[in-house]
Design a protein that fits this description.
8-stranded mixed sheet; Rossmann fold; 6-stranded parallel sheet; Dihydrodipicolinate Reductase, domain 2; alpha/beta
Length: 369
């Protein structure tokens, strides 16, 4: 059997999350070569390149694309830059691997989808919780019908962020971050929820600015119905001192739960069979894994897809459903209306920006600065 091909990759943006990407590249066992890095701070780019043995460092994505050949570019930059940088990668015929959120709006994700069709290149979003062993096992059992009908789910991302966190200029603004914990924190949990339960049908939501003097919300809650009849609650918070990330799925034959913070292993999952359905616990116990959900598992799935000539996960089509859910949550929270899947069309203000017609509280950024 011939060895897997080596891919040439670059990392753009060398902040904290870029190290997780570099570690994931190193963990591929030679399937990827880190060929270059770029950062607006060239000194920081060179320091990062030296730490992770990348032979080239640049001060911009444009310079990198002009002066070196790569197959994959990991975009680890602030959210405002994701869409334009991903588009530049597509135009250069390079696969873009984008940190969440992939774009700031539905309009931007649709622009990337159109560019993929035109260029043949691909965009994949880093949603690593989809690729842990527990999540993959749950999807297999769900799709096989082994758990019975999905009835009820709860999804909670209750984290804590202080004022120092929001001192970073691009955080807490619609223009730069695109939203609050709905956009940048809870997305991992409810994306996993959506990847299991499938298409959602309707959203009713609230959002509030409870603590932080920022433009965006710091809490949101949603009631969701799904095409398969399941119902769910989704909570997103950055005001919760006891931090947790929790998902619970109640099926006819079992309750499946996971509680963690920023990543899980099989040890974080529990299964409670309904009376008379002990076989579910036996099915869950098969193929146990000690590997955590991480960038490593996500990148391995990306490489497997690329080596088979397939679109890398999570595709723009996958992520569009998640982004539409976010837009629907904000639409419902800011208008007081129930929002159906497909309702936010291209000319809707909530398609252009998650703030849409405006949050029901005054802008705070200018008052703070």
């Amino acid at each position: 059997m011939s060895p897997s091909p080596t891919h040439r990759a670059a990392i753009v943006g060398t902040g904290g999350i870029a190290h997780a990407h570099a570690q994931a590249i190193a963990a591929t066992g030679g399937r990827i070569e880190l060929a270059a890095v770029a950062d607006v701070d060239l000194g920081r780019a060179k320091e990062f390149a030296g730490r992770w043995n990348a032979p080239q460092a640049f001060s911009s994505l444009a310079e990198l694309l002009r002066d070196t050949q790569v197959d994959l570019i990991h975009l680890c930059t602030p959210p405002k830059l994701h869409a334009s940088q991903a588009l530049a990668c597509l135009e250069a015929g390079v696969t873009a691997l984008v940190e969440k959120p992939p774009t700031l709006s539905l309009a931007e994700i649709d622009t990337l989808i159109e560019a993929e069709r035109r260029t043949g290149a691909r965009v994949a979003t880093v949603l690593q919780h989809r690729f842990g062993a527990g999540a993959e096992r749950l999807r297999r059992l769900h799709q096989a019908g082994d758990l019975g009908r999905p009835l009820l789910a709860t999804c909670a991302t209750q984290w804590y962020r202080d004022e120092a966190y929001y001192a970073v200029p691009w955080r807490g603004t619609w223009e730069s971050e695109g939203g609050g914990p709905t956009m940048g924190h809870g997305i991992h949990q409810f994306d996993l929820l959506l990847s299991v339960l499938g298409p959602w049908r309707e959203v009713t939501a609230v959002a509030a600015r409870q603590v932080h003097a920022v433009d965006t919300e710091d809490v949101s809650m949603a009631l969701v119905t799904f095409e398969n009849g399941a119902v769910a609650t989704v909570v997103n918070s950055v005001v919760s001192p006891r931090q947790t990330s929790e998902l619970r799925f109640d099926y006819e034959r079992a309750t499946v739960e996971v509680e963690h913070l920023y990543g899980y292993t099989d040890e974080d999952w529990t299964v409670t069979p309904a009376p008379g359905h002990d076989a579910v616990a036996e099915m869950w116990a098969r193929d146990r894994s000690t590997v955590p959900s991480s960038h490593d598992g996500w990148l391995a799935a990306v490489l497997d897809a690329l080596d088979q000539g397939q679109a890398p996960p999570a595709t723009t089509a996958d992520v569009r459903r998640t982004m539409e859910f976010i837009a629907a949550l904000y639409t419902s929270a800011f208008t007081g209306e129930r929002v159906r899947s497909g309702q936010i069309t291209r000319d809707n203000p909530f398609a252009r920006t998650m703030e849409g017609t405006g949050a029901p509280w005054p802008r705070a950024r200018n008052a703070r600065s």
